[in-house]
Amino acid sequence: MRQLIQPHLLGIDTGHAPGFRFDSPGAIDETCLVMCFRTPVRILTRNGIETGAPGCCILHSLDFREYHFSVPGSREGFRNDWLKAAFEVVSPIVAELKLPYDTLLPTGRPDLLESGIAAIRAELENPDGYSDTAVRLLLHQLLLTVRRAYTEEMRCRTVMTPSERDYYPAFRKICDSLRKEYRREFRIGSLAAEVNLSPERFSVLYRKFFGRSPYAELIDARILAAKRLLTSTAFTVKEISAMCGWQDQYYFSRLFKEKCAVSPRDFRRHYNRYAK
Questions:
Q1: Which residue(s) pair with 45 in the sheet?
Q2: Which of 2, 51, 170, 256 has its CA 20 to 30 A from that of 190?
Q3: Which among 259, 264, 218 has a CA at the least distance from the CA of 240?
């Protein structure tokens, strides 16, 4: 059985000179071309020749002409991340995720595919008996990332005002920080200062963007981390409380029970082999 992805048929931040034009009548090798552009580009879609902005992705169907080139007047040409994968593998994933072919999918994230392609490349360069399964899973994850980013970008464009869209990338970074750095103590005032807003306006926009308050975001991140520690380590409840950002073990236990309907010890007893 042929490989799902050939090691030489993928690239990260591939540069193309200003005069370069990619023109192929279609995937004669039964592959699907998946791309995300890091620079503006002119590209043929089902709507005709369009200009794609940085962060635009596209998936080409088998019989569609693959044609793209630099924006006229560009001095650097264009750059993209890309891969070609067996269409028989891509097709059911695309159908499941309801991704359209031959259509520009704006995501606002020019490096969206970088980590996914890097993971696939690493798997292809060090194959073993499980690589076929691993590549399938990584490809599914990569296309899911496109679906999520595209959906989020479309939501931003339809429910946000232009000024709110300007703020959104900074709010996205703050949201990511709350989730990843949940051990830290955050203050609304300091978070608001990062985007030059009043605490009141910051809180309103955060809730509009993410459907919850910054405090709820932080608490949920801490509770999730506590669940992981309760079910995968032998740390005491007191130790886990401190590791997740709470110095008061009893407050942590009350909050955990409020959120999960069981105490931390009961949660561990049910799920964890370390329960005594």
A1: 48
A2: 256
A3: 264
Helices (H), the chain: 87-97, 114-125, 131-159, 162-180, 188-194, 199-210, 214-232, 237-243, 249-260, 264-271
Q: pLDDT of 98-122, one tens digit each?
A: 999 999 999 989 999 999 999 999 9
HSE, CB side, 13 Å, CA atoms: give it for residue 121. Answer: 14
* CATH superfamily entry for domain 161-276: Homeodomain-like (1.10.10.60)
Q: Give the angle subtended at the CA of 71 by the CAs of 51 and 35, to the nearest 5°.
A: 60
What is the percentage of the chain residues whose pLDDT exceeds 70?
Answer: 97
Classify domain 5-158 by CATH architecture: Sandwich (2.60)
Against a cut of 0.85, is the pTM above it?
no
For residue 113 the two structure tokens come to 């595919």
pLDDT in tens, 74-92: 999 999 999 999 999 999 9
On the question of a common fold for 5-158 and 161-276, the answer reads no
Structure tokens at 188: 């609304």
More confident residue, 221 or 271: 221
Three-state SS at 187: coil
Q: Where are the domains of the chain?
A: 5-158, 161-276
CA distances from 202 to 161, 183, 194 (A): 15, 22, 10
CA nearest neighbour of 246 among 275, 225, 228, 262: 225
